[in-house]
Amino acid sequence: MNPLAFALDFPDVKAARPVVRAVAAEIGMLKVGLELFLAGGASAVKLGLEVDLPVFLDLKLHDIPETVDRAVARAASLGAKMLTVHASGGPAMLERAVARAAAEATGLQIVAVTVLTSLDESDLVATGVVRDPAAHALGLATMAKQAGVDAFVCSPKEARSLRDALGPDVVLITPGVRAKSADAGDQKRVASAGDAIRAGATWVVVGRPIRDAADPVLAARAIADEIREASA
To answer: What is the pLDDT of residues 194-208, one digit of tens each?
Structure first.
């Protein structure tokens, strides 16, 4: 398995398609987020079928259990293999999401988002959270695991503590991955792809460093090579 997930941070499917086709051999999964999904809907998810790659539908659902239950069913019908929900939605919401995904029997996996990589301790305090990002991520992930979730989004900075606490079988997905020399942009808790893998990540998500590269194929290949070296 190639653990590199390419985040399709494009305005529409037409813009995404040629880059997806170019880099498909260098990546292991496509991540479709809010921007592209709102622009393309089902056609954005079908990009995965065009290049025979699974699609990680990153919608970060956070709503009442009934609404999330129904949304999970729709995501399953589209053929997505992973779907994000916010762990902060609580146990009842998480339990319903996991149960509905299982009932749909399409292989959809529910992924709980812990703490966004754009947040630091001061941001959490502003929202009334008194734990630092690492403690909060671990607390949310532990609660979500008890609700039946076995895949989690966390920053590379928290991957080791979640791996140690939750065990070898959970799936850890780490956004906020940058080359060592790259600008962090709007992300605050970042690391390189190699560091994320060494910390215990199952998947590393990379978007702009590939999308904005002069040669996206070479950029994706370099990150994939770094991952392989870290995994050796």
So the answer is: 999 999 999 999 999
Q: Quote the pTM value.
A: 0.92
> Is the CB of residue 94 less than 8 Å from the CB of residue 84?
no
The residues with which 204 forms a beta bridge, in sequence order, are 4, 174
Q: Between vectors from CA 58 to CA 30 and to CA 171, what angle results, nearest 5°?
A: 75
Based on the structure, what is the number of domains in the chain? 1
For the annotated catalytic residues, the residue numbers are: 60
CB 170 within 8 A of CB 212: no
- What CATH number has the domain bearing residue 130? 3.20.20.70
For 213, how many CA atoms within 13 A lie in the half-sphere containing its CB?
21
Residue 225 belongs to domain spanning:
4-231
Query: Quick one: pLDDT at residue 178?
Result: 59
Other CB atoms within a 10 A radius of the CB of residue 183 amount to 11
Beta bridge partners of 61: 85
| Closest by Cα among 99, 129, 100, 105 to 116 | 129
